[in-house]
Design goal:
By secondary structure, the chain is α+β, with helices and mostly antiparallel strands. It has helices spanning 14-28, 41-47, 69-83, and strands at residues 2-8, 32-38, 54-57, 60-64. The protein has one domain (2-83): Glutaredoxin.
Amino acid sequence: MTRLDILVHGGCLSEQSARTLANEIRGELPGWEIAIRSAELCDADLLGVLVFPAFLVEGRILTTGIPQKEWLVAKLRAWEKRER
């Protein structure tokens, strides 16, 4: 099962949008493990993430901000095909 982590800055206005997007894509990508968590200082230090929310596939930054649902699903499906 491939993992998508969505790092959010706790209390930021974009957190709810990220949660809504995660719930929407869960239905389209049932084989994915999708987790939302508050970013920690070590995330910025280790990954170089300066913009939140940040979308990470298997620990690699895919995008930051709130992407369009269709774009995100297309990128995740492409990743899935590459990993098979």
